[in-house]
Every structure is written in C-alpha cells, then in structure tokens.
Design goal:
Elements (H helix, E strand, L loop, with lengths): L7 E7 L4 H11 L4 E8 L3 E8 L14 E9 L6 H14 L2 H11 L8 E10 L7 H15 L4 E3 L6 E8 L2 E7 L3 H4 L14 H10 L7 E4 L6 H9 L4 E6 L2 H11 L6 E5 L12 E7 L12 H15 E11 L2 H9 L4 E11 L2 E10 L2
Parallel strand pairs: 5-6, 5-7, 9-10, 9-12, 10-11, 12-13
Antiparallel strand pairs: 1-3, 1-4, 2-3, 4-8, 7-8, 13-15, 14-15
Helix pairs in contact: 2-4, 6-7, 9-10
Bound molecules: S-adenosylmethionine.
The site of S-adenosylmethionine has 20 residues, from helix 7.
Length: 366
C-alpha cells in the first residue's frame, strides 16, 4: 500500500567514489526512494541526498553508508566570503527543520527528555578557499540552532547528545543531524584489525558490485582479516565462501572475525598465485589486492598480479565476475591484457582516507 507519510530528506556519507553504488543499495532497500543529488567533500566524503517515506530505522541497515543524516536545512546561492556568512546568519535560522529532525532521530534512538538538548556542530568546507575559518561557520550554525530552538538546544564542545553537521559545498550549505553512530562504520564483527584491513563500507560495495546470487561460490583469494567474506556472508545466502591468504596472522584474524557464522565456508593458508581450486568452479570473486607500499618490493607487483589474473581466469566459471580493488590500476590492467578469457568491465575511482584507488570489474567470457 502506498504510504500517506510525507517524504523526509536524508543524506548519507560514503567513501568518495561509491556514491552511485550506494544509490543502488538505497533504491533496493527502500520501497520509496527519490534521489535528490550527489555531492562531494573532496578527499573526505561522497554524499547521496535523497527522500523517502520509509521508516528511518530501515536506513540503519545500509551497508555502503559510513553515516546517515536527516537533513535539517539546505541554503543555496550563498555568496563567497564574509558576505556569505552574513547571508547564512540571516537565512539559516528560518530554514532549520529542527523539531522534525529531532522526531526522526527519536524514532531511531532514545534521547533523554530531561533538560536542554546538547549538541556539537561539525563543519566542513569544500570548494574555493574562504577567507573565514571553519570555526566561524561552526559559530554561525550553532547560533542559528540555538536561536531556532529558543535556547532549548545547548551547544557543547564535547559529550554532546546529538551532532549537527554543516557542509558548505561551493555555494550551498547542507545541514544534517547525525542519525547513525560509530557502529555503522566499524562493524561489531571486526574483532581483530590488521593495518591493511578494509573499511567495511568499501567491502560491502565490492560485494554488491559482484551482483551476488543465493547459490554463489564466492572467493576472496587474498582475504586478509576477512572483511569482504563477512560482508558477502551478510549480503544474501551463498553456496560456499572461500577465503585464503599467504599470511598466517591474517588467516588467524579472519577465522576469529568470521567466527561460527556464514557456513558453509573455508579459510585457507595459501599462495593466490597457485590456488588449490579446480578450473571453472567459482561464480564470484571480490578482493582488496596488496598495494605497492604494502609489499616489501613493489617490483614484485606486476608478477603477482599477472599470476593472480591467470588463476582467476582459470577458476572462474564462464560468465563469472571478479571485483578487485587496487591503487595500481595500470599494473592490474596490464595483467588482465594477458588473459584472453577475462574482459575489463566498469571501474570506479575511489578515495580511501586520502589515498586514491580503483575498483575494477572483470568478466569471465563465456
Ligand atoms: C590489502 S590486504 C587485504 C585486506 C583485507 N581485505 C582485509 O580487510 O583485511 C592484501 C592481503 O593480500 C595478502 N597477500 C599478499 N600476497 C599474497 C599471495 N601471494 N597469496 C595470498 N595472499 C597474499 C596479504 O597477506 C594481505 O593480507
């Protein structure tokens, strides 16, 4: 039945570069979903702005989002410089949908009803360098919130109940109230971390790009601590999960992190250059490949990628798919060029904590 509720505007943060993949997850998860646009805070976040009539609690199930916000205000056409701050001082208080935002937040988690609500403002500025500091923007936004709430909301430097995020993106200010907490970014299954552990939202994006099916034999040939395998296990049912790594400590961590769930699954100590798997037995592969700086000698990388590509070409079923993450995309493509039964598909440049990398899709020809 169509819902009678009015749509609410939200936005999510993603790793820059996976906004479009996150949009697809939103469209699949939510029955009613209208995309309002994509935004970027360079090197920090991609943003997907959307509206839906669905219950906000559903958004907590998103796997590609790093954080979820209910939108409190959008102020367009802000002049550059100090004049812009003056315009915000005037226009922002009226634009803030504070009570609506708080009601949405209360539907997601409990907020103590007693006393003034405490908040902290976080500001991000993207685009042409502004003459004022971020602290000046924080000040304007905090004052607007206090005024709009008739001093019922109190700004504090730490220990806040809620976070207000102010994103100045070129000439537009987007203000949101954070609905999610740390647990969205750092999943509870991550018991053991190693330095090269992948961010779960990126692992979830790799998995989604494999277009998983319920009976898939799924492989991560360089599984590290097992993040991708776990995200695959959580995505939908599977036939078999297979993971391996050359490093015993990584496999021990993967065994600990995967725990007793996601059966049937096999975790093995192996060299991905010689996989102990029969030809044409794997439906889907996703992997975060070792990058140059993670290897003792970067010169080894072309040979490693070439051997891995040959093994993927061999073990994938015709029509199978591999989704690989690397910062050495040229080296990977050179390796794929040597594999006539693999075809390069779409790729997604992304940015993880300031480092550029590429998600490359490969198709095993029929
Ligand atoms: C970027 S890390 C993967 C991190 C993993 N996605 C995670 O979240 O923990 C690359 C992994 O490749 C492994 N590796 C390097 N060379 C390998 C090889 N020849 N065979 C199997 N694994 C290898 C490393 O031990 C490392 O765990």
């Amino acid at each position: 039945m169509p819902s009678e509720r009015r749509p609410t505007l939200y936005y999510i943060h993603t790793i820059p570069g996976i906004e479009g993949v996150a949009r697809d997850e939103l469209a699949t998860l939510l029955g009613v979903f209208v995309l309002e646009g994509f935004k970027t805070v360079p090197d920090r976040n991609g943003m997907v702005v959307f509206s839906t009539t669905e219950d906000a609690r559903r958004l907590m199930d998103l796997r590609l989002a790093e954080d979820v916000f209910v939108l409190l205000a959008r102020v367009p056409d802000i002049p550059w410089g100090w004049e812009g701050l003056a315009v915000l001082r005037e226009r922002l208080p009226r634009a803030l949908a504070l009570n609506h935002g708080l009601n949405v937040l209360r539907s997601v988690r409990a907020i103590r009803p007693d006393g003034p609500l405490t908040f902290r403002t976080i500001a991000r500025v993207a685009g042409s360098g502004q003459p004022y500091r971020r602290a000046d923007l924080v000040d304007v936004v905090s004052k607007a919130v206090r005024g709009r709430s008739r001093q019922q909301w109190k700004s504090v430097p730490s220990g806040e109940q809620v976070e207000i995020w102010a994103n100045l993106l070129g000439r537009e200010l987007v203000v949101g109230l954070r609905l999610s907490d740390e647990s969205m970014r750092h999943r509870s299954y991550q018991k053991v971390h190693l330095p090269a552990s992948l961010r779960p939202s990126v692992a979830a994006a790799l998995v989604q790009l494999t277009q998983p099916g319920n009976s898939d034999v799924f492989l991560d040939p360089m599984c590290g601590t097992g993040t991708i395998l776990i995200e695959r296990g959580l995505a939908c049912r599977h036939g078999l999960l297979i993971g391996g790594d050359i490093d015993g400590a990584a496999i021990a961590a993967a065994v600990e992190n995967v725990g007793p769930r996601h059966r049937p699954r096999e975790l093995m100590l192996w060299d991905a250059r010689r996989l102990p798997l029969a030809d044409g037995t794997v439906d889907r592969v996703a992997s975060n490949l070792p990058f140059g700086r993670q290897l003792g000698t970067p010169r080894e990388l072309p040979a490693l990628y070439l051997a891995l590509a040959g093994e993927l070409e061999r073990v994938l079923k015709p029509g199978g798919k591999a989704v690989l993450l690397t910062s050495e995309i040229g080296t990977l493509r050179d390796a794929i060029d040597q594999c006539p039964r693999l075809r390069l598909g779409r790729h997604y440049p992304i940015n993880i904590l300031g480092q550029g990398a590429t998600i490359q899709i490969l198709d095993r020809r029929h």
